[in-house]
Every structure is written in C-alpha cells, then in structure tokens.
Design a protein that fits this description.
Number of strands: 6
Number of domains: 1
Shape: globular
Order of helices and strands: HEEEEEE
Number of helices: 1
Helix content: 10-25%
Strand content: 35-45%
Largest sheet: 6 strands, parallel
Distance between the termini: 55 Å
C-alpha cells in the first residue's frame, strides 16, 4: 500500500512540475520601437522579450528585426519581416500568414524545424 502511495505521490509531483514549467511560456507580439532590437523590452507588448525555448513571438508589421542569438518555440509573421544582425534565431515552428515574406540579412541565420506556409 505504501508503494502505491509513493508512486501516486511521485506521479502527482511530476505532473505538477510539468505544469509549472509550461506556465512560464510567454506569447509576445512585436509592437516596434525606435531600436528594432529583438532584445529591447520596448519592442514587445509584454515585459521582456522572447528568449526562451517555450516562448512564442508574433510579428505583424513590416519591419527589420536585429538580433544576436535567440531560441524560441514559435514565430508567426503576418507582414514582411527581415531578420538582421550577426546572430542566429532558432525556432521550432515558423508560421507565415498571407503573402508575408521572411528574409534574413547580413550574417543573420534562421534555423527551424517546421515551416508552415500560407494556406
């Protein structure tokens, strides 16, 4: 009986810790500002900027974004976006809405697992 309680307790702890980690994922929307820097808090609608592997970013304005190195979960673009700078943007999934284009400029690199083209 104690083994069952221990196992159930461990499963509950594991489930809680998984939910806790997921709660820190944030969805950010680009609002743009004067710098164009990915890591400038003022460029995003949330406090901070997307810099975690669970974070999502949406850019719905025609813009150039300069970055150093970032790793995020999802990137959604709804207008033409240029990724510039000398770093790498690692993304699990990129979703392109409408006739938008995603380009890279200079030494910037975009690495992704999945690209979802417009429907």
């Amino acid at each position: 009986m104690n083994r069952k309680r221990t196992r159930l307790g461990m499963l509950a702890l594991l489930a809680f810790s998984t939910m806790t980690v997921a709660a820190f994922a944030t969805a950010y929307t680009w609002v743009g500002g004067s710098s164009g820097d990915w890591d400038a808090d003022a460029e995003w609608d949330e406090s901070g900027y997307p810099d975690g592997s669970d974070d999502d970013a949406t850019i719905a304005t025609d813009t150039t974004v300069t970055l150093v190195n970032e790793c995020i979960d999802d990137l959604t673009i709804d207008e033409d976006v240029t990724i510039a700078g000398s770093g790498t943007l690692e993304v699990d999934t990129i979703e392109i809405i409408g006739p938008a284009e995603l380009t890279q400029s200079g030494q910037a690199q975009i690495k992704t697992v999945n690209i979802c083209p417009p429907e």
